[in-house]
């Protein structure tokens, strides 16, 4: 996952809204959004799965914990022997404590951002390891791409603004539709707004939209799926509406997968 924005506490009706894109090579094995067991005897989690490393980029459990991870763009510094970043999500969903967050950034691992949220409790944390840092997330609009929390890359600024506007929607379906439209934005940023992350300029341009399509060494790379979660406070409960929209290598949308989970509040 390479782009995510979270609205926390900006709407009484919709206290949590998350919009995110996962960008990856299309030849990397992936399973779609479904309930599954990350380990024998563990609780089920709702997520897609990375079949190459066994973890996931984003997941939710039945108690309302949610986590997502993005990588940090640092060309030339990838360690193939490093533990998978996708293992962090099941660890948080499996009941890791707040103390665990203090240790995550110190362990050797390729660059990452982790959003660890508890939707039922109304709390959230960001942890990153480039450099090691942690922050509690209060009410506001937060976001990550392939740099530290709220680094003002053009696509993240656009997504956050679109999400702020989408919060004015009349219902959860309209809010989800607006968020998915923002995630499908394929406009490249002008050169003077591009970050300088160490990749060639043509790659910076190609990676600057929210929705990505490009070729790396003859391999198709881009947005594999868009995921939106809307937490709706209604009738004495918190209703979590989760929608995943997959895409093929030509950018064509596949069938949406939707789940709803209800938490007492």
At a glance:
17% of the residues lie in helices and 40% in strands. With 265 residues, the chain is an alpha+beta fold.
User: How many separate helices?
Assistant: 5
Mean pLDDT over all positions: 95
Beta-strand fraction estimate: 35-45%
Radius of gyration: 17 Å
Q: Report, as a whole number of angstroms, the end-to-end distance.
A: 30 Å
- Net shape: globular
Reported by name, the CATH topology is Penicillin V Acylase, Chain A
* Integer tally of domains: 1
- Major sheet: 7 strands, antiparallel
Write the element-wise H/E pattern from the N-terminal end onward: EEEEEEHHEEEEHHHEEEE
> What is the CATH C-level name?
Alpha Beta
Q: Find the count of extended strands (DSSP E, 2+ residues).
A: 14
Report the structural category: alpha+beta
CATH-wise, what's the superfamily?
Answer: Penicillin V Acylase, Chain A
Q: Would you identify the regions where 5 or more consecutive residues have pLDDT less than 50? A: none
User: What is the second-level CATH architecture?
Assistant: 4-Layer Sandwich
Q: Report helical residue fraction.
A: 10-25%
Oligomer kind? single chain
